[in-house]
Amino acid sequence: MLINSIGSICSGIEAASVAWGDFGWKFSWFSEIADFPSRVLAEKYSETPNLGDMTLLPDKIKNGEITPPDLICGGTPCQAFSLAGLQNGLNDSRGNLTLKFVDIIEANDKKRLQIGLPQSLVFWENVEGVLTDKTNAFGCLVSALAGLSNVIENSKWPNAGIVRGPKRNVAWRVLDAKFFGVPQQRRRLYVLAGGKDFFPENVLFEYHSNILPTFPKNELCFEKEGHSFEVFREYTDCLYSSYGTKWNGNAAAYNGSLFVVQDNRIRRLTPLECERLMGFKDNYTNLTKAKKTNRYQATGNSWAVPVVRWIGEKIKEYQGDNFNLCFEKLPLFSRSTFVEEGVYVDCGKEMLQNSSGSLINCSPTPEHCVFGSLKNIIEVNQDEELFISPVGCYGMVRRKKERNLKMNKRLEEVLLAISSQMPSEEIEKKSRIQKRGRFSKETLQEVENKPKEKQKQTSREDNQLLLF
Fold first, then answer.
1. Would the N or C end of the chain have less CB density within 10 A of its end CB?
2. What pTM does this model have?
3. What amino acid positions are annotated as catalytic residues?
């Protein structure tokens, strides 16, 4: 498929430009307002204008101030739908940008039709949480893109699906980055839409012919550049924008997948390691005077480059409707909901059987997987700020016990070994400087006001915790 021009919305640090950089596709404009990502765009892509606020784009397109591109891509803010956010969906101003995204598409296609060009392609990425959003944001998005007069209502949308409407055809699929060459479990929703002569499922879905593999087992302990390393799993959990800026209070803190043991000390991932986990070149975000916080946030908010490249390659190879799905016949008929102007098809999350008997892969795993290794991701780190102190190690184990949570056994052994390097009384003293959460029973003042005997007893109990 011929793509000459692209417009990028909520551009971030431009994973799309990295993924599609050698395709011959020209980015006409970006739209990004955050300071640090805008700095990255200005330095890396100085010839492409950054138009800033996406809400101004419809008028700019209507007035002919900017080119109506062949493809518009974007990932409107995910915090409104993410498990890490408040999950307020369309009640959140950031969630409402999803509908503004549709306004941009409408203005773009109207302008293109006026000058004799076909409708644009639409590419949208977001977190899985949008599929279960309580405000049905995803239903609003796909219904509006398809041109349906009524929103399709669904309390839980499938991992893969199709909507045919009077204006556009839409398809989506959840894909996991750990099957595309980066050892990071990053499941994201990818939506593709275009005019009535475009069948996006032929890009996102695949004929099923292979046995889909699981992630291979690798050595968790290895040597590199004269240093010893240990990781706790073959791939990491999903990187998130606040990684490295505060204690990891999520599951990754207890399974250890976002920690590295280097020379018997445990630390967070470095910004460069995070870039590698997302598929960027080394030091892509390492601008002059860039703070680690800026780099972590910008990288964690971006897209997995290898997945986006795979989708781009499929767009380039698109030759038309090869699947010829028949929704009026079984077995697809039982998965189809016919509306006044079109049809919605629940494609599930694994394999879809066509009326011809062929199987179509709609799962998070592609037919041809590529696996990366954490050994290739890890660097020799010299930044002391990234290493976790004995007090921090002890705090993780304490919280695990207070909240009766499960923890990777090897991680717990490492944390206890490091925390035992400092006397328990000193750990307790330092750990009480900061206010503890609702699970802790005592404050620093309460400890200081205790009789000496009780303080000693507390220390002995803490020492037992360190031992057992």
1. C
2. 0.89
3. 78
